[in-house]
Amino acid sequence: MSGERNWFWAACLFCGLLMGCGGSASLPAAGGGDVVSLPQEQLVVQVDLNGDEEPDLVTLDTTERPFMIVEAIYGSAAGDPVDATDLLFGTAFDSALSTALADYLAQSFGGDERMEMDVADATGAMVTLVVFE
Amino acid sequence: MGTMKNTLRLLLLALAIPFLLTSVADAQTIERVRPLCGTEGDAVLICGSGFSEEPTVLFNDIEADVVRNSPTKILCRVPEGVAVGPATIDADGATASFDVLEPGSPVVLHLSTKTMTPGLRVFVIGRRLGNGEVAFVDGDSLTVDSVRLHGRRRIAYFEVPGDIAPGTYTLLITNGEGLDTGACSPKVEVVEAGDPTLDDMQPEEQLPGRPVLCEGTNLAPPGLCRVHWTDSTDRVLTTLGLANGFNKVYTRVPHDAVAGETYGVVIDLRGGATTEGTGVFRYLVGTPPVPVISEIRPDAGPAGSIVKIRGEGLAAGFAVTAADLTRPKVEFGGGGVAHEAKVLAVIPGFGIDDDTIVAQVPGDLADGDYDVTVTTSAGTSNAVVFSVKDLPLTVTSMEPNEQGAEGPKRPVIIEGSGFGVFNWVKPSLAVTWDDGDKSLRGYVLFHTDSVILVIPPGGRFDPLPVGEYRVTVITNPGSDEEESAEAGIYTVE
Description:
Chain A is an alpha+beta fold. Chain A has helices spanning 2-15, 85-88, 95-107; strands spanning 42-47, 56-61, 68-74, 82-83, 115-120, 126-131. In chain A, strand 2 (56-61) and strand 3 form a beta hairpin. In chain A, helix 1 packs antiparallel against helix 3. Chain B has five domains: 29-100, Immunoglobulins (Immunoglobulin-like); 107-190, Immunoglobulins (Immunoglobulin-like, Sandwich); 197-285, Immunoglobulin-like, CATH 2.60.40.10; 292-388, Immunoglobulins (Immunoglobulin-like); 394-492, Immunoglobulins (Immunoglobulin-like).
């Protein structure tokens, strides 16, 4: 188990994993911690992608480093969502956010309906990410 | 004689109790399966208790691949070959129902709201969604109305029909391939629209800058809104909120709210609707504790390295909305000068664990001892000493030191010192696997001065051949300053 604790500690230290890392109950048991084969190859997160303060929904391919955008639906003040997938498909997601999310996945079993975390992005600015599935 | 018999019975009962309790504690139970349906290869989370270290999960007697497990959770995949239709999941002997859908069928994982009003836009997160159709099916299995589903495979949205009658409906979602959610179609409640209300806030007390959930009704439209916090002197603070379209608004206590003060809270929704007309919710802002550092790890390393500071009250007042004002300040003091460190992450412990701050030692510090302090809105912590110095390259452990022929199960963690500061652009550290003939580099995910996270060469796609490998850590590879240290022998079986 000490190895698992080290893994947990190192992952938190490395990448600034925020919530979800707090209790030992969430630690993977022996044989867990499979970061190479993530539980979900795709992850849906909510984050302001285009800097307009409106939360956007993004699907990320978690087998790429950094994660790659495969779907993007912009929220808009006017109300109608804007499908920006054709514009953004294949582009890299923020590297620091990707690393934090990779560590969340490495520690998590998934299945959280909504998990909010605050992470420093590649520029050092704090960003709120909501992880769905 | 009767007394003796009773005593004997009591004694036997007393002896039996621990065994009874143990057997109860060890019994496997499944409390929840999420999602309740899926197709071959879909990830399924089983929550319960008493699962073994190496659990066996069967779907109709076909063994599933377990991705990750703990005593209370098993993440597995629907195995190949299991027949479409109702299935029984057996996890270490505990059972639960599941529905195996036709390959390509959509699965709903999350709806932005399950209570909705006519005309409301609802977001769906799931699997294999795409452009399709959403049918509102009533209790008699009749399709009352249907609308278009817009979106992509994982994210989609639809609008509730404007003229649909209130009631309980099953949402039958059909994707672009013509396959539907079948037995796993979510149930929703359609209600008449009304005036927005704010009925509750959770948790009951929260610190400035921390998340808080507002619960009510008719909190539409979905998306950004504003939450106004009025104190006893009528000063109004405003935070941004995110409405789900009906019963929830996610927001934060204002970072500059006064601890211990009660605020009147009103939600100002986009389009002009407000909860003020149905009442003002009274909310008590919590008092943050003065921060106390319990440890800093590691307690020595070069300038620019990463440290983890643990303690109580370190995350108090932390907020994203005004990061410069409210992020805890970490300072390295020495020679009468305080050098501010870059805070990379703040991990609240929520009273269950210590708070944690991940910070980067200022890059311009000269070698020497520094007093590290954390300052939050509640005050400045005690000081702990950190020594800035280059540490010799050493390796103290490598774990795991073996993998199966199918490839690594997880990254290898190498601990020691002198690994240097991680450079995203120009890597300054390599880890090699040498079988005597050739030397292959691993994929270094990240490292600090004291820990390396590395995936062995080939990963799971092209794993190393069976054999023994000498693992070596090399700093500044290819330069005049190159140094190396052996991490140990890595076995592929």
